[in-house]
From TrEMBL:
Name listed for the protein in its UniProt record: Germin-like protein
Species in which this protein is naturally found: Raphanus sativus (Radish)
Binding site for oxalate: 107, 112, 117
Cleaved signal peptide residues: 1-25
Keyword Disulfide bond: yes
Keyword Ligase: no
Amino acid sequence: MATFLSRVSILLALCITLFTNPALSDYLNPLQDFCVADLQATPSNTGYPCKSQVTSEDFFYSGLSTPLNTSNPKGVAVNRANLMTFPGLNTMGISMYNVALAAGVANPPHSHAGVTEAGVVVEGSVLIGFLTNNYTLYSKVAGPGDMFVIPPGLIHYEMNVGKTEARLLTVVTSELPSEVLVPHTLFLAKPAIPDFVLMKIFKTDGTTINMLRSKLTN
């Protein structure tokens, strides 16, 4: 019971942090309480129109609980709750993800333009790192119950450094985050990202990593 309550407290803190963020106020329209997207309609430049008939079911989503299978070439599995899978999130400015990483697997480096990401590790040990605009690296291994935050738009990655599958829940302040792969900038990090992490990210050996580091930092 204590473990369950602690996880609930963490998720509540995560939600409070996001929903009290002034940056999200732009999504709120004082003329309507909500706008559940009608995905069957043709979207305009401003997005999908609101459904005319709304029920309680439009505000609940069970897709995040679908079993995750990391037995694939990437070793990564994700359940997504965003505008396209959960239309009730329309105009709310958030998406949520349930992510599983096989042992030793790294989630490729990416960024979300102008978007903040926060999350909590549910199982396993995950090395989480991000680079600032001047390539300063901030990283730490997070365990069950540990929360983390990625500042808006910064390059980041996650790697399972444990011996068992790892899982984390993340929230991003966007309904449909745009992800841009930017692997070459990882070689400019200060302090340097360890070779074993880069080897997992680029799926190559130490010799190749040293060659790339030499070419990209000189």
